[in-house]
What we know:
Helix 2 (about 30-55) packs across helix 11 (about 235-245) and helix 11 (about 235-245) packs across helix 13. The chain is built from 13 helices and 2 strands. The chain is an all-alpha fold. It is about 75% helix and about 0% strand. It has a single domain, classed as ABC transporter involved in vitamin B12 uptake, BtuC (Orthogonal Bundle), CATH 1.10.3470. It is globular.
Amino acid sequence: MMKRLLPFLTLALLFAALAVATPHFLTAPNLSSVVRQTAVINIMALGMTLIIVAGGIDLSVGSMLALSGFLGSMAMDRGWPIAAGVAVGLAAGLACGTANGIMTAKLRLNPFIVTLGTLGIYRGLALVISGGLPVQQLPKSFAFLGEGSLLGVPFVLWVLAACAALVHFLLEHTRFGRYAFAIGSNPEAALYAGIPVAFHTTAVFAVGGLLTGLAAMVECSRLMTGQPTAGQGYELQAIAAVVIGGGSLRGGEGSVTGTLIGAFIMGLLANGSDLLGISPYVQQAVIGAVIILAVLVDELRKRPARIR
Length: 308
């Protein structure tokens, strides 16, 4: 119970501390900026939640974001409608995620090794296709996806809420989610129970790739450019959001609510550091330390159970 409450308490304490530390924190423009800045990581982290719950991991999501965003932007640059360009980005993410899942499930390769390899492959493809140059001629109305507002709320927050609701429904109210938890808890037992482990392992990676493709288009919309170098280090932040939110790298544990809280904790840390003039290099060190602390808490919680 304490583990579930810890992310909530951490977020609340961090929010209160920043509100006291700087008068600029509780302003509407700043809070809106936090939402927009963390939306990309939040959407990616939702997909990572599914993957980690099923006992996997995806180190390639940063490179996948760069490739998906560049291909979607290139389609719009060549005159395709905005909807078609977004569809290209989503399809690219889905294809990359499916490829990761097939190599992991069908070839029975370790997902850490598979996605470490595809991290380089997807980044290399983005750089080869682009020649290292970004796409900058995007339709002005495309900016609405990342920077627009609907009913006074950042539009990207509506997108995030829809994605969160969908992933929560998949995890908690469908056979797909039950199978993901079962596979992450004990893949051998899941196989003997008749669960199609290979299919569902591929499926969670595919959904993770699809959400990364969506995050890529949000990123392109915010920056109004398709960068083949985008997304560097994003895989660390997506994994950190899941772990900080109570997910276990051993699989079988994780929740949408926890992941969102974990992502917003990192977003507040980054925003607060900027407001207080703390170096971004220190921010990276803090995120790394928080990941280790979260994993340590998970290990200490489970160790007595294993000893018994």
